[in-house]
Amino acid sequence: MFSRSKTEMLYCGTSLLLVTAALWTTGDGCWGTPGCQIVDLSHTLDTESIKLPFFPDFHFTVLTQGLQPGGFWLEYNKFDTPEHISTHMDAPVHFFKEGLKLHEIPIQRFMGPGVVIDVRGKVDRNVDYRLGVADILRWERIYGPIPDGAIVFMWSGWDVRYPNKTLTFNSNTIEDSRTWHFPGFHPAAMSWLVENRNISMIGVDTPSVDYGPSTNYETHQIMCKANILGLEIVNNLGLIPASGSFITALPIKLLNGSGGLTRVVAMFKN
């Protein structure tokens, strides 16, 4: 129902490039102008980085670090990491066989206007809260329709729990996914966005766009079948406005990747 072909998505990417150019022309891309604020929405990648417990661990190895015979300093390292760890992007192929792989996604898909939907109050009352259609419509009543090419974030306030794994998964037995409790996007809200708005991606400050108790990852399935990108474990959403920011989310260009580490940056006028 929601599937878009790769050809359609490449055409969509060209259209979004025009949207992106228009945004920069109108000043939403404010680099170098007075009052321009830039916020890093990414967590640092290290051995404490959050990932799903069944993924392999991150490893960092120092290969060379020290003064060389020629009198100069030299340092280089290697690292081994799963795709889906710390702040990262889900490519559509993650949950849809015909979806775009990470290296196939048009570069213009990685930027667009930011939409931050605050559900912290509801999460305080229900840690398994799922952002719903009503939350989207409430945002639109205040700020207007979600713009084309938008990156729609759920702000639950969950990033303050990072990198404590017990708090992030809200479980004392994180190896058992049946015990996870954290907020995410409701599948109905994801379907509504696919059917009614032309967004580029969604993002969450939790480990998954699906809420903790999910067993079939329905939001992931709907998102990926529509070739919409997903950002997970985002940081600092409380430092950017609900509307009016310009987001750049650049993942590693990994051949055939189902996802990858991503530096997410917000830019907006103060």
From TrEMBL:
Pfam families: Cyclase (PF04199). Gene3D superfamilies: Putative cyclase. One of its GO terms (biological process) is L-tryptophan catabolic process to kynurenine. The keyword Ubl conjugation does not apply. Residues 1-32 form the signal peptide. The keyword Nucleus does not apply. Keywords: Signal. GO terms for molecular function: arylformamidase activity. InterPro entries: KFase/CYL, KFase_sf. Belongs to the Cyclase 1 superfamily. This is Isatin hydrolase-like isoform X2. It comes from Biomphalaria glabrata (Bloodfluke planorb). The gene is LOC129926444.
